[in-house]
Amino acid sequence: MRKPRARSGRSTAKSGIAGAAALLGAAALVVSAVPAQATAAQKANDPAEVIPGKGTSTPSLVDGIREGVKASGSPADAARGHLADKKGRYRIADPGRDLAPVQTVTSGRTETVRLQQKHRGLDVLGGQYVVRMEKKDGKRVVTGTSGKYFTALKTDTKAEVGEERAVQRAVAATLARLGGKKLGKGDVPAARGGKSKAAASLSGTARGLVVLPRGAGVLTHHVTVRGSDPATGQPVLQEVYIDAKAGYPVLQYSGIKTFGAARQAAPGGSPAKETGGGKAPAAGDRHPGVAGSGVKYDGTTVELGLYFDTARGEYVMRDSSRMWDSSKNVISTWDARGKDVMESSGRWPEGIKEFGSKGPQFDKEATEAGAVDAHWAAGKVYDYYKKVHGRDSLDGRGTAVDSLVGVTYLGMPYVNANWDGTKMVYGSGDEEYKTLSADLDVVGHEMTHGVVENSANLVYAGQSGALNEAVADYFGNAIAVDAAGISMDDPDAGLLGGDLCRTKSRRACALRDLNDGATTSKNFLGVSFGSDNGGVHLNSTIFSGALWDIREDLGRTLADKIAYKALTEYMTPLDGFTEGRNAVVAAAKALGLSAKDLNTVTRSFNAHGIVPDWEQALGVDTDLLMGRLNTAATGVGAGGGWWATSKSNDDGTEAYSVYAGRTDGKGSPKPMSPNDGRYHVEPATDGKTVVWLAYGPTGTDVLSRPLAGGPVRKLYGTTDDIRGLGVEGAVVVFEVMDSLGGRHASYLRAGDKQPTWVDERREDTATARPSLKGGRIAYAKSYLEGDTYRTGVEVLDLGSGQKKLMTQLGAPEGIGATAVTGKHVYWLADEVVDDGQVAVRRANLDGTGTTDISKEKGDGALFASSLTASDEAVTVTAQLPDTAYRNETTAKLWQFGTDAAPARVRVSCNRGEQDSAAAAGGKQVVWIDGTTGYTDLVTRTRPAGRCG
User: Fold this and answer.
1) Are 284 and 421 members of one domain?
2) How far apart are CA 130 and CA 140, in angstroms?
3) 188-208 average pLDDT score
4) Which of these, 577, 715, 846, 877, could form a disulfide with 702 (CB 3.0-4.6 Å)?
5) Please, are residues 148 and 574 in contact by the beta-carbon 8 Å criterion?
6) pLDDT, position 194
C-alpha cells in the first residue's frame, strides 16, 4: 500500500480545467514554489533576463545572454554543459543524467536543442528544456533557454499496479467517459456472442511508466486506448495515465486533433502503403514526376504534381518533385471515399489508392471528391514552410505528406478534418459543406498540427492544447490569405473555413474568426478534458487573435517569422497562454525588432487579456462551497442538507479524499475518507451517511461512514468497474461493469455481504444508471422480449419486491441517466438516429402518464448527458444545438419544474462548463464548476433564469 500523503489546507493549485500548466488533469501542474530570497540573489548576481518558472526553481525563460560554452562534442552535450555550468541559475542537479536529447535543429549558425527531463530514468510528462546557441568560427555561445524542468520531483519509480491491470483500468475509464452515459442494446454481451459492443469497441496499449509533474510527482502507467466510441462510432485515440500506486485514471485526453475538435512518422517518411500496383515505389525508383492539372471547387484550374504509375496505367496524385532534392519522399492524396473515419484516423485503411486519372488532367469527379483541392493545397502548404521558413516538410526532414480525402461517418456524410499523428484525414462534406479539403486554411491548419508535433509538441489538452490550435489556426489562415491575395485589413481576412459552404456566405460559413474583436481572456471557458479536450477549440482564438493582430500591424513577413521562431525555438509541450506570450516576445527580440515594434507585440497580447495572472479576473454568480478541488470526473453527492465531493491537496499530489459539508454553506467541510493512498471518489450522501468508491492497486471498494462520526466500513469489494453510487438509509445502490462489458445494477442492505442484482446478473440482460429514493430503485434496462432486444426504464419497490417497466413513447435505442422522486421517475431517452439529442422523459411511479418535458426533436432539443431530481425540480446537464465553438457549446445546467408544462430555465449564468450536478432539495443544486479556471464546488438555491 502506498504511503499516505499528508493532508494540507486550502488549495492554491489550478485544476485541469484551468489550462496551460494545469494540463495534468485533475490537478494542477504545480511544484514547490521558488524561495523569494533565491530569486533575489539570482537577480543580483545574474545579468540575464530571467522569467521564473511557476512551481519550480528552474526559470521558464532566460534571455539576453551570450555565454560561451565548449564547442567540442555534440550540440546536446554543449547544451547540457551550459546548464551544468550555470547550476545556480537553473538548479538542475545533473543535466547529463536527467536531461536526454530529443531534437537538435540547426539553421545557419543557430542550434536549438530540446532536452527531455528524466526522473530516475523515466520520462516526465511535459518536462522539456530548450537551449538556444550560435556556432561560428569553431566557437559556441548560448543565447537563451526556455521550458519546464520540475525541481521538486521525489516520487519513487516502483509500480504497485501491474501493466495489465493498468490497461484494463484505462479502457474502463475510457468506456465510462464515452459509453457509460447511456445503456443500449449493444451493452448486453449475450446479444453479441459474449462481449458487449462497448467492451469490443476499444483496446489499450501500454506505453510505459511516466511521471506526472505534480508536486513531488505522481508515477503513472501511460496507456493509449484506440477504437471507436460505442455510442457514436467516432474514432477514439485516448491518452490515459493510470496512477501506478492505486490504479486510478488521473489524466486522460484525446490525441486526435480535429479542425472543428499518435505516433509520429519515422524520419524520412511513412511506411509504404498499398496502391493499385502493389507497394508504393521505393525512393530510388521515383523521379520528379510530371505536371498535371485539375479544377478546384472554386472553378480555378491549378497545376498538380503527378506521377505516372505504370502498374495502374494512370497518372496518380503523387508529387515527387518537391522533395526530390532532399528526402525523395512524396506528397500523396488518397481516395478514402466510403472509408469510415474510425478506420481512417490513427490507422491506415485497407485497399485505398492514390487518386488516379487516365490523362494528366483530372476530371470533375476528382474535383467533387475534394482531391484536387487537397493535393494542390498540400503542395502550397509545403511550399510555404519551405520557402518562408526553410522547413522541409512537416518534420523538417522531408517526411512524406499523406492526405486521405472523402471519409464518411457510419456511411453518412462527415463534416470535419483531423491530423492523427501521421496524416491528414478530410471528411466527405454534405449537402451544405464541401469536402473539408476544399479550403486552404483547413489544409494549412491540419498540416501545421504536424509541424507543431515535430517541434514544440504542445500537449493537446487545456491551455497547451488551445495554444496548439491557435498556432495551427494562425498559420492556416496566413497561408490561405496570402495565396488568395487578401489584404489583412479585409473584414473577412480572419475567417477560417469560410470557403467550405456551398450556399452560405463566407462569414456565415466560417467556424472561427481570428479577427472577431471580442475574444479575450475574459471570455476564457473553463471545461474538463472530457469536453473539447479542455477547451482546445473553445479558447484558441484568445491567443490566435493576438497573433493575427500582430500580423495586421507588423506585416505578414515579419509576423510569420516571429510566430514560427517562437514555436520552433522557444515553446515546450506544457506551455499555456502566458508562456506562449513570453515565447513570442522573446522571439521578436531575437529578430531585432525596434522598441516600437516590440511594443506592438506586447500591446496585442494585452488587448487580448494575456497578461500575468489573467485567470484571476473570471467572475461567477454562484455560492462557493469548496474551492479548488484539484480533481476531475470524481462526482458530487447531495441530500438531507449535506453535500459530498472529492478533493486533492495543494499541488495535486495527494490521492483524492472525500469531504462533506452543509449545503447552506455553514460550518467547515469535514474529511470522511481515510488518507491511505487510495483514490476516494464518486461520493453520495443522504444527509446521514456518506458512501464512496476507493480505488486501490488490487480492486475497488465501496466504503461508508456516518456523517455524525464513526469508523469507515467496507461494504463491498471487486476487481470490476463500479459507478453510479446512491444511498438512502440502510440501502446503497451502484452499477458494476464486468470484464465482458456487461452492466448490472445492484443494491446492498445493512448487513449484506454481497449485492443483490436487480437483473439477477443474467447474461441476456443489462441494467445501469440506478437512482434511489423513497425505497424505490429506478434503472435503465436492456432486455430480451421475444427475439428482440429492447431498452426501457424499470422501477423496483424494495418493500414489496415488485418491478414495474415504465411506459415508453416509442422504442428507445438507448437510455441515459435516471432519477426517482416521491412523485415521478425521470430519464433520458434516445429514440432517433440524429446528432445526439435526447428526450427528457417523465412518468408516474406506476408507469403511467409518460410524457416528454423536453423533446428529442425540434428547436431547443438538448444534448443531455445526465440529470438529477427533487420533488420540486429536475435538473439536466446538457448543451444546446450550436454550430460554433463558444460558451453555449459547453455543458450547462437546465432546470424544469414538476408541473404539467414545465418551463426550462438556466440554473446558473456562469461561463464555462457546469458538471456533476446533484439535487440538494427544493430547487437547490450543487455541482462542479469550471468558470474560474479551477474545479470549484458551487451551489445556487434558485435558478438564474434565461441568462440573456
Assistant:
1) yes
2) 16
3) 75
4) 715
5) yes
6) 64
Asked if 429 and 293 sit in the same domain, the reply is yes
- Same domain membership, residue 93 and residue 180: no
Task: For cell 499530489, name the residue.
Answer: 653
Which cell numbers hold the place of 266?
519515422
- 301 and 397 part of one domain: yes
- The secondary structure element, H or E, covering residue 178 is helix 163-178
**Best CA proximity match to 153, nearest among 115, 125, 130:** 125
* Three-state secondary structure call for residue 354: strand
pLDDT at 20 over 70: no
Separation CA 50–CA 48 (nearest Å) = 6
Residue 530 pLDDT greater than 80, yes or no: no
**pLDDT at residue 263 tops 60:** no
Beta-bridge partner residues of 749 = 731
How far apart are alpha carbons 380 and 378 in whole angstroms? 5
* Pair 285, 293: CB distance under 8 Å: no
Shared domain for 229 and 273, answered yes or no, is: no
Q: Say yes or no to pLDDT of 476 above 90.
A: yes
Flag whether 644 is in a domain.
no
Helices H / strands E in the chain, number of each: 17, 55
Q: Are strands 721-728 and 731-737 parallel, antiparallel or unpaired?
A: antiparallel
Closest-CA residue to 417 (of 370, 455, 351, 367) = 370
- Please say if the pLDDT value at position 268 is more than 80: no
Answer whether 645's CB lies under 8 Å from 657's CB: no
Length of the chain: 948
For the chain, what is the mean pLDDT? Answer: 87
Alpha-carbon distances, residue 438 vs 261, 291, 384 (angstroms): 18, 21, 18
- Beta bridge partners, 849, equal none
Find the catalytic residue in 537, 608, 744, 824. Answer: 537
Q: Crossing angle, helix 462-484 and helix 371-389, to 10 degrees?
A: 100
- In-domain check, residue 410: yes
Q: Quick check: is 893 in a domain?
A: no
Residue carrying C-alpha cell 463534416: 415
Number of domains in the chain: 3
**Is the same domain home to 272 and 196?**
no
Given this model, what pLDDT does residue 280 score?
Answer: 39
Backbone angles phi, psi at 647, to 5 degrees: -150, 145
CA–CA distance, 125 with 605 (Å, rounded to integer): 28
| 72 and 89 within one domain | yes
| 394 falls within a domain | yes
763 vs 835, residue with greater confidence: 763
pLDDT band at 880 (very low <50, low <70, confident <90, very high): confident
Residue 927 has pLDDT above 50, yes or no: yes
111, 239, 446, 856: the catalytic one is 446
Give me the DSSP letters along 134-165: EEETTEEEEEEEEEE--TT-------SS-HHH
Domain that holds residue 325: 265-444
User: Is there a catalytic annotation at residue 763?
Assistant: no
Query: Which one, of 103, 2, 79, 174, lies nearest residue 680 by Cα?
Result: 2
Q: Does the pTM of the predicted model rise above 0.70?
A: yes
In DSSP notation, 391-418 reads --STTSS---EEEEEEEBBTTB----EE
537 is catalytic: yes
Residue located via cell numbers 483500468:
169
- pLDDT tens digits for range 324-374: 999 999 999 999 999 988 888 878 999 999 999 999 999 999 999 999 999
Comparison of pLDDT for 535 and 198, the residue scoring more: 535
The residues with which 331 forms a beta bridge, in sequence order, are: 319, 401
* Residues 671/658, Cβ–Cβ less than 8 Å: yes
